[in-house]
């Protein structure tokens, strides 16, 4: 994609974040834009970086590692946001700053034990299957507290909050329902685990970003509206 188009798209998304925050009285500095760059070439990430973007989200491990090698001269904060098999945790522990899709204790345990001592703790979000869909990965809402309590005990990870990918809905009002449910779950965790930072709600994509921000998102994960449609 042309660099000018990526820059323009980024500026448009940033403006939407500012507008959404203004509409609900939030500080736009409290919403981090995560550029979701899966399937995009490293040159597109470099264009976005040149336009000021620093946080990038990747879904596919091998693809992400290749881009990281190509972009090693850039000071990027890397987020892993896709499903992860437990035999692939080591590369995430060694090459990422954040992991958003932890949905079982075994993954968190392996990430903690494989995180190099020379690196700061890996930031984790628990992925919640907020609509209780059979097809979706994520821990069920009623199992979140138990998982969070166990993850909070692990030494080399830092439990930052919750992530969800709700089922598509028609209106912004309907889109807010699962996001507000995730917000309430994070509130519950804060009460149970007062020693943890728990400052992150990773929710909102190109089609539901406004509803997510209105519901308290602190990290929005935007792919299509920055890099265009994926094939
Ligand atoms: C692809 C993806 C996104 C971005 O979705 P868009 O609709 O392209 O903005 C966000 N989060 C996750 C987990 C994704 O897999």
Task: Describe the secondary-structure layout.
Elements lengths: L2 H22 L7 E5 L5 H9 L4 E4 L2 H10 L6 E4 L8 H7 L2 E5 L2 H10 L7 E6 L16 H8 L5 E7 L8 H21 L7 E3 L6 H6 L4 E4 L1 H4 L4
Parallel strand pairs: 1-2, 1-8, 2-3, 3-4, 4-5, 5-6, 6-7
Helix pairs in contact: 1-2, 4-5, 6-7
Bound molecules: pyridoxal-5'-phosphate.
Give the N-terminus to C-terminus distance in angstroms: 13 Å
Helix content: 40-55%
Mean pLDDT: 97
Please describe the biggest sheet, giving its number of strands, its sense, and whether it closes into a barrel.
8 strands, parallel
The tally of domains stands at 1
- Please provide the count of β strands: 8
Overall, the morphology is globular
Q: If you compute it from the alpha carbons, what radius of gyration comes out, rounded to the nearest whole angstrom? A: 17 Å
Q: Element order, helices and strands?
A: HEHEHEHEHEHEHEHEH
Are any ligands bound, and if so which? pyridoxal-5'-phosphate
Any idea of the CATH class? Alpha Beta
Name of the CATH superfamily:
Alanine racemase
In which order are the strands of the major sheet placed? 7-6-5-4-3-2-1-8
Structural commentary:
This protein has a single domain, classed as TIM Barrel. 42% of the residues lie in helices and 16% in strands. The radius of gyration is 17 Å and the shape is globular. The protein starts with a helix and ends with a helix. The protein binds pyridoxal-5'-phosphate (PLP). The site of pyridoxal-5'-phosphate (PLP) has 13 residues, from strand 8 and helix 9.
């Amino acid at each position: 994609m042309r660099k000018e188009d990526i820059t323009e798209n980024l500026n448009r998304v940033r403006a939407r974040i500012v507008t959404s925050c203004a509409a609900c009285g939030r500080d736009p500095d409290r919403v981090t834009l995560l550029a979701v760059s899966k399937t995009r070439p490293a040159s597109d990430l470099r264009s976005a970086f040149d336009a000021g973007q620093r946080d990038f989200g990747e879904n596919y491990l091998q693809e992400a590692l290749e881009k990281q090698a190509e972009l090693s001269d850039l000071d990027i904060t890397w987020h892993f946001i896709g499903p992860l098999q437990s035999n692939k945790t080591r590369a995430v522990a060694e090459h990422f700053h954040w992991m958003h899709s932890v949905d079982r204790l075994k993954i968190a345990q392996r990430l903690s034990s494989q995180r190099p001592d020379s690196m700061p703790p890996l930031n984790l979000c628990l992925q919640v299957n907020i609509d209780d869909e059979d097809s979706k990965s994520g821990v069920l809402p009623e199992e979140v507290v138990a998982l969070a309590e166990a993850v909070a005990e692990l030494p080399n990870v830092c439990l930052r909050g919750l992530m969800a990918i709700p089922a598509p809905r028609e209106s912004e009002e309907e889109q807010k329902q699962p996001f507000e449910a995730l917000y309430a779950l994070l509130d519950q965790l804060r009460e149970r685990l007062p020693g943890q930072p728990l400052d992150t709600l990773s929710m909102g994509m190109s089609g539901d970003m406004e509803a997510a921000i209105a519901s308290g998102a602190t990290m929005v994960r935007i792919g299509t509206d920055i890099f265009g449609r994926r094939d």
